[in-house]
Amino acid sequence: MKQKRIHILLILSLLSTALFATGKQETIDAPDMVKGPILVASKIDTEGALLGNIIRLVLENGGFEVVDKISFGPTDVVRRAIISGEIDIYPDYTGNGAFFFNQSDSELWKDRQKGFEQVKKLDFETNKLVWLTPAPANNTWAICVRQDLAESEGLKSLEDLAAYVNRGGELKLAGSEEFASRPDSLPAFEKAYGFKLENKQLLILAGGNTSQTEQAAARKTEGVNAAMAYGTDGQLAALGLVVLEDSLGVQPVYEPAPIIRSEVYIKYPEIENLLKNVFESLDLVTLQTLNSSIAVEGRNAADVAEEYLKENGFID
Known about the structure:
By secondary structure, the protein is α/β, with parallel strands linked by helices. It contains 15 helices and 10 strands.
């Protein structure tokens, strides 16, 4: 009986060795090693494409299967998509929390750290979304004008612009529907500085890409001599445009940060560390330079993102 048990144990041992030798054990474990798929999206502007591709490339380098949904749509479309689970992660801006949660009148959003902590808290409580480490660059809404107009009329600030408009100066501004209608953007500037642009003084362009609005001002498209801009835009100087100072500090701080669904974050917490150092490296000058490569030089956003990540050792 004892000898029979020894034979059985010997057979089991040989079978186990055979499984490892033929790779059967690896085949059994392989499905557990697959990470993803992660649906990566972005807004449709230049910086959205840049940051979306940065997230995509970092995750792919980290061993994740990624579904590319970059340049998915404007803010409201992308927000609905992540809340509904149609996408998993995308870059947005901390100051948008004031708009998302109807707190545009709160001064809290003008403090970078307090604004980040507030949107992180509210978005998790309300939508189970997790805000990861933001980049130290304020990509706030701004208004720029043609340099020749700025010089001839002495326009340096939005107070100067308001005085120019109110005395009947010719102004036509190119912007997105979002910029023209959101209470925390153009309407907030108008309210704070005491001016009002009529419909005929606006050229509304689809989407939120400032390269289009700024090109319209540079080319005087349909009489445009001013445009919606962002603080990290890299093409302003090249296009002969001047950003007017927001001397009253109307705008919140808009630092870009990845937002991820909590379900995905809990499953893959390593995503936070994969993206942390990358976003911390994206200061104002860096983003302006990268955006300029896309908007001015005409390079592909994915190529610019990949080159930056490789040159700085973030991906292989």
